[in-house]
């Protein structure tokens, strides 16, 4: 499978992600998931390609944001599908990739 | 260059011939004819080993110590960097309020701390990769748990405007676990 879409979070969403759900505050994981990500993710599944999610340039990822976006999607669709259609990169901080992949593999359920 | 090499080889050969000639015709040292050739080799070998072992072992020990010191310094720096997050939370707790910019700063401090963590990981991989695999996984797990504890719950909620007693206690417990792990790792590095 080849990469046919690149999503740069800092440019296409915000560089200061926020909480988990919309009701918790601005720039939430839910907002990112529903307004920007899920549509492109569905297209990637239908077109059988990979989206490269670029995590570079963000001032820091709160765990609540990662959980409300990638974690929530992983609970709904399963980690295997996400890992099949998503690739991550972070030029300045490789640990961010580990954080997201860890959340996809072990999603935090909503408390 | 090739010419120079040929000249050097020729000079060495002529030197060898000259030494052989002088030793044969004008003996300064009387060789004991009963001496076996392997005994000479044995003596030379013992002398070489005796002189080279302390030199190489000392150097190897010093190099290894220096690498371990660098690792320990990096571990201490990582802890120091993560302590900035703890200090920030402590400050907000004692001030009895936390703003959105404080929360952004905490996320940014985690990003800084991550960078230090990445450096540490690279240093471990380039020096004691196989020996430290378990240690690295353990530190990473505890560090991730600390990140989740601080930024994974109520902190990012816009209604969370002051650090609660419960949050502060959970944070301190999680930080302590990370601090203990780093200090244990320093001891393990000493023993590597």
Brief sketch in words of this structure:
The complex is a heterodimer of chains A (111) and B (192). Chain A has helices at 9-12, 29-46, 63-77, 79-85, 94-105; strands at residues 3-8, 50-54, 86-89. Chain A is an alpha/beta fold and 111 residues long.
Residue stretches of chain B low in confidence (pLDDT < 50, at least 5 long) are none
Number of domains of chain A: 1
CA-atom Rg of chain A in angstroms: 13 Å
In this structure, how is the largest beta sheet of chain B organized? none
CATH architectural group of the largest domain in chain B = Up-down Bundle
Fraction of residues of chain A in helices? 40-55%
| Ends distance of chain A | 36 Å
Q: Runs of chain A with pLDDT <50, length 5+?
A: none
Could you say which overall geometry of chain B the principal axes of the C-alpha atoms support?
Answer: rod-shaped
Structure description:
The complex is a heterodimer of chains A (111) and B (192). With 111 residues, chain A is of the alpha/beta class. Chain A has one domain (3-105). Chain A is 50% helix and 14% strand. Chain A has five helices and three strands. Chain A has helices spanning 9-12, 29-46, 63-77, 79-85, 94-105; strands spanning 3-8, 50-54, 86-89. Chain A has a three-stranded parallel β-sheet. Chain A is globular, with a radius of gyration of 13 Å. The model of chain A has no long low-confidence stretch (mean pLDDT 95). Chain B is mainly alpha-helical and 192 residues long. Chain B folds into two domains: 2-30; 51-191, Four Helix Bundle (Hemerythrin (Met), subunit A). Helices cover 82% and strands 0% of the residues of chain B. The radius of gyration of chain B is 32 Å and the shape is rod-shaped. Chain B starts with a helix and ends with a helix.
